[in-house]
């Protein structure tokens, strides 16, 4: 397999939801997982855990939970409507692709579920007074940034799949029914899921991606001041 450049991978790693049923060799999945573990994590804790689900019964159970959650998410998409930066055709294609995945999640030959082990805050009495006085703020900050220790690994998975000729997509609908997923997978109390990624050889094609220009999403120095440089 010929290697591709980093920027080619980033610019062409489309969300590929239609996958062939062909099995993916263990050594290929192992390479994807090793790429995941090269990502940064908060405090270099490396508190990620990855579940590789290939058993058909397990895949179908998870797919059923994902289908149930996605029925609710579909209503939210419909109520929210088409984003103004997307054409009607693009929005229709997005919804059609999502609907396909909602029906076929359990058919993917591999379901990869990135998780993280929850790191508890030290008790306030073990902290200096200045920190202990702001304990609630630190708890809130920890809740907000927790995903930062696993989502870089998830993006590495996305790029590694692209480099190895695999298709995948990052989705999180199942978290609406996290308790059911936890029961299916037998997760310990301190392990939580952060994504559900079907992996297989794609039926569709890679990139190019349709993205808003940076001039629409970047400000310079303060809110409202335009960024004018072009790549």
The number of E-state strands comes to: 4
Outline the low-pLDDT stretches.
none
Round the mean pLDDT to the nearest integer and report it.
Answer: 94
> What is the rounded distance between the termini?
30 Å
Total domain units: 1
Helix content: 40-55%
Provide the gyration radius in Å: 20 Å
Which structural class do the helices and strands define? Answer: alpha+beta
CATH architecture: 3-Layer(aba) Sandwich
Quick one: CATH class?
A: Alpha Beta
User: What form results from the Cα inertia axes?
Assistant: globular
Q: What's the helix-strand series?
A: HHEHHEHHHHEE
CATH topology: NADH Oxidase
Biggest sheet statistics: 4 strands, antiparallel
Strand content: 5-15%
CATH superfamily: NADH Oxidase
- In DSSP terms (H or I, runs of 4 or more residues), the helix count works out at 8
Keywords:
8 helices; 4-stranded antiparallel β-sheet; NADH Oxidase; 4 strands; alpha+beta
What does this structure look like?
42% of the residues lie in helices and 9% in strands. With 231 residues, the chain is of the alpha+beta class. The protein has one domain: NADH Oxidase (3-Layer(aba) Sandwich), CATH 3.40.109. Strands 1, 2, 3 and 4 form a 4-stranded antiparallel β-sheet that branches. The longest helix has 25 residues. The protein is globular, with a radius of gyration of 20 Å. The two termini are 30 Å apart. The model has no long low-confidence stretch (mean pLDDT 94).
